[in-house]
Amino acid sequence: MFKKNALNASVSSSTSAALITFKYVLVATLWIFFSDYVLRLLGLNDSAQQWLQTAKGVAFVVVTGALLFFSVRFQLHRRREQEEALRQSEERFNLALVGGNDGLWDWDITADALYMSPRCRDIFGIDTSRQELLTKDWLTLLHPQDQPAAHAAMLEHLQGKTERLDVQYRVQHPGRGYFWVQAGAQAVRDLNGQAIRLVGVVRDISEQIKREQRLLQAGVMFDCTSEGMLICDAKQNIIDVNNAFCEITGYSTEEVIGRTPAMLASGRHDEDFYRHMWQQIKGTGRWSGEIWNRRRNGEIYPQWQNIIAVTDPYGQLTHYVAVFADMSIIKRSQEEIDYLAHHDPLTKLPNRLLITERLNTAVNRARRHQVSLGLIFVDLDRFKGVNDSLGHSLGDELLLTAARRMEYLCEEGDTLARLGSDEFVILVERRAVVEELSRLAERIQQAIAAPFKLGGQLVHMTASLGLSLFPDDGHDGAELLKNADSAVTLAKERGRNNYAFYTQALTEQARRRMTLESDLHLALKHNQLRVYYQLQKDLQSGQWAGLEALVRWQHPEQGVIPPNEFLPAARHAGLMGEIDEFVLYQACAQMRRWLDAGYPLRSMAVNMSGYWMERGDVVSSTRQALRQAGLEPAHLELEVTEDEMMQHGERGEHLLDRLAELGVRLAIDDFGTGYSSLLRLKRMPVNKLKIDRGFISDLPGNSSDSAMARAIIALGKSLQLTITAEGIETLAQEALLKEYGCDTGQGYLYNQPLPAAEVEKLLMRGDV
Ligand code: C2E
Ligand code: MG
Ligand code: MG
Fold it and tell me: Whose CA is nearest to atom 4 of ligand 1?
């Protein structure tokens, strides 16, 4: 191309030089002929003519000389200008090359000579002393992998298939090893379009390539990391998020772009939290901490977040980058690890570690609140035999079924744990009394004794149980566990399929209760219950006022058993309602008889247990008993203890209302021992308060008891209630209570509870 231009330039300058010369010759020739002709026309003599000829010749020389002078001067001036422009252009070109750190090369194809500028030699690592360079030198420097492509690109360009040569390849530098360069070049062609020269620049782009690779890696990291990433501009508008962000939050990229991170706020943190966070970002450029955010589905989750403020080289804030990890996964896996560490993998029950922790906490709590705590150690009898004969997987199945059966029997608040192998333990907190524990132990014994269906056959299994109680059988969890375990040995010694308390006496007590319970069923069936009566005296008039019906058990072998000994067993056996009802019918019928006999009695009191109240048929039974006996409701007084009255809440109140509607009188028994709410007391349809025996027995000596008795009487009076004092044993007690204004009294001073026939004798005597 350059050559063509140069050729064109030389052709045109020769033409114009010839043209100017031709014009000059033409003008000069015309001048000679024309001036000679004019001289001849003048007709001058020869000498004048000769003189004029000479003058004309001199004038011509002067004029053309002047013209030559100006022309030469003009040409020289232009050339100097062009040279200066060329020099400046060359200087600019060199500066540009140096500034751009580019190397120049010029390949004379015809001569196969390669020129390289110093920078170019520097890039390729070619010694400056080496003058002659050939193209093959250049090609050998290229990385073998890049040679074919570079060579092909060059050929294509030389063949005129491409406008420019633009190619990247790695070259080997003696000191640096391989590094990337970019080469750009353009061919100079002759008139036939044949490339005769190739001139180009080469640039070291290794840093640029490294930067690009880093960006590429960052891009891959951005998209592939499991941590959520969010980029905001300086105004906190989200401009980009990564895949993990979308997975964690549930939002798509389109849904968040242009919005602010406030859209993720969970509402869990107050303004102070965010203010403090931004203060730190502004102050130190970064913040990290736990923050609760909200997913698209509304779920709140914790994340560990790093926020970095990004600035440009001038310190101007440009972006915020937030990187966060979803901690719910970590927390969940921590919980899972924790779960595995504290649970038995087979039954999923708490393991030894967890039950020990819970036991110790429970012991501390029980000690603080001064309550008891029970532990039942369950050991399956001859479980090893099952494992050996049926195999471990059926053995596991048996353990699992046994665990489920026990779990079913436990109540809320109980903890069932598997200590290992065939050993289980149950921690009982709320109901840890001998009766409850032995009852639970029996039920577990029965549940285990029920056949197990394993692999198509029925397997029979029994368990031995050991029971220990806090505080009696141990001061801490470990001791309780150890003692429950040794109680298992006791149970096994008794022939397995058994249970034993760590304390011998408790085992006996539990056994007695067991027998009592089964005997009680028979007692009701065989009519062994008796109703005794205790008379009540009107302290002001000195007359008999009424009676209280109290149940007794006429045991065929043990004789008369008082209620305190068999009623707890009756409660456990679920017989309480039945007993109360029996007493009610008896008492109503007896009252009718005594009224018919003309004894001036006002009321017959019958005790009503919470169990009976819960059964729900108290009102109908009462109505029926009254009707059957033909007794007016006003003669019947139902007694509920203060504790039970308060325990039964609104349902109890409703029941009392309905009983009151019947016309029956209502009394609060053992008043002063419970925690009555005065408000409820005022609201309830109660007619009488019975001061508990505990306040009477130490009268008149005990001043606080007498103050209490006096206060209860005053309170009852102010609520228009009748007051009865229970357990009057001395005349002094009677006198004091009379003085305080107590209405009636009941106690051994007058009579012990007696069978109806005995009471009748007293009634007949008339005197009190
Ligand atoms: P309670 O209803 O407070 O009955 C009064 C208890 O005090 C009776 O005991 C009575 O014998 C006793 N007592 C009366 N005066 C004196 C005295 O001067 N000194 C002493 N030391 N004791 C005296 P009992 O008959 O043994 O009955 C005990 C508790 O059993 C009763 O207390 C009552 O809560 C319950 N009870 C008795 N019979 C029945 C019944 O048929 N149904 C229900 N639900 N509970 C009953
Ligand atoms: Mg009573
Ligand atoms: Mg009482």
Answer: 550
